Model the fold of this input.
Amino acid sequence: MKSIDIIQNEIIDDFNMFDDWIQKYEYLIELGKDLPLLNSAYKIEDNLIKGCQSQVWLHAEKKNDTIIFTADSDAIMTKGIIALLIRVLSHHSPQEIAESKLNFIAEIGITDQLSPTRANGLVSMIKQMKIYAVALNN
Amino acid sequence: MMLNIENIRAQFPILAQQIHGKNLVYLDNGATTQKPISVINAITNYYKNENSNVHRGVHFLSGLATKKLEKTRNAVKKFIGARYNHEIIFTKGATDSINLVANGYSTLLKKGDEIIISELEHHSNIVPWQICCENCGASLKIIPIKDNGELDMDCFYNMISKNTKIVAISHISNTLGTVNPVEKIISKAHELGAKVLIDGAQATTHVNLNMIDLDADYYVFSAHKMYGPTGVGVLYGKEEALNSLPVYQGGGEMIKDVSFKKTTYAPLPHKFEAGTPNIAGIIALNEAITFVLKLGIENIYNYERELLEYATNEILKIKGVVIYGNSKNKTGIISFNIDGIHPYDIGVIIDKFGVAIRTGHHCTQPLMERFKIPGTARISFAVYNTIEEINICIEAIKKAKSMLV
Done:
């Protein structure tokens, strides 16, 4: 498995190919649509991260010492961002996830999405992924 | 009178701004309106030339600041047609005003008493009453709404009784734009001896207010939704209604005499104005009122109705659009969804076109629950908006839709 930083750099390279925000957003929408479905058994209140506007269901499980994340959201742009987060963090060890520094969000120019309005719950999403990693690390 | 919109726009510096390289199209006026230069100048002028604490000061500047603050009180009194200046209490905003009254009622009510609100209230007119009920044991009753976004008045007439002590209703729904039949509610409530609080946050620039005619016991609003500054609100109350409430916050200005044995309180309005108020903001509110009165509330209302009708027709041409709130009696607010698209996605995409609207539950989660939706996209107008801006917004929505579907 590639390291978290290598995957982040790949994503940054992907986004550098786009000329404008429309292409970036279209790509995010695409990623959102392609995100594998979350098993409906996991789409429960306990897995819900409530943003002010869009909601995210996040499930984590441990497999061969790595954490596998699956998720869903009711908003497609939020789903696109989750897809990126999963690509970066899933299949890594709890320690790698907990210690990761996610710089790609700022680098790909979608920081508007990171606004402190809690609109899409992105900040809580990252926090929750790290919490799962720590919790599943034994 | 026809309004000269170009002249009006020129008074709002922020409207000349570009967002993401596009001209700002500001259609989030239900959340807060932009401020004309007269309001902005009043704030800077206060801090440059007049800053001083109000009341009790013997020096020149304190006298000046006090005079100007009291001048706003008088302007508000005239603006809403109240009887006395001391019926105007300055607060932080409409929310603060409701909390003041609800907090008072938590000491006045007991188990068995009832408070009535409606399904379309803003959280600001729900949560303070829930807290009140928790504290005093009273119960909360909710007037449901009909599919078109109007209050179900038959339910209200069945619900209200001798047990009802206060009815708290918004004048205009911030999510649906519905103008509620507050006159009918007030007269029915008074028949049964209940008091009425009207949340006028969305109403002050759309309805000519006259408290004597309306006969509401309490009426609250925020300066920032009527072209004034944030952090200033008004609680109007009939003299006897305000006097019936216990003191809210303690501190300076609200006292008559303080001793460790017994503190006595100042009469209205100071009884409810503890601490140094937002002096600059209150002075600037006077300018906002002047701005609104100069244009004329009826003219503003009529112009915004034109925008509303045009925008409603245009937006309905987009396939899959559903508008929530279809009362004939509504102001310039359009809450909508597009089939299969989350409102959040529309909001973030059209933002990139310079178009500012609000998406989400608009602090009316029970109303969203009623319609079984996670939220809506909401366009809300002010007097400086134009048909051209609506066209830009509609084009942006169409583009968002084509990206998302």
Q: What stands out?
A: Chain B has a mean pLDDT of 97.
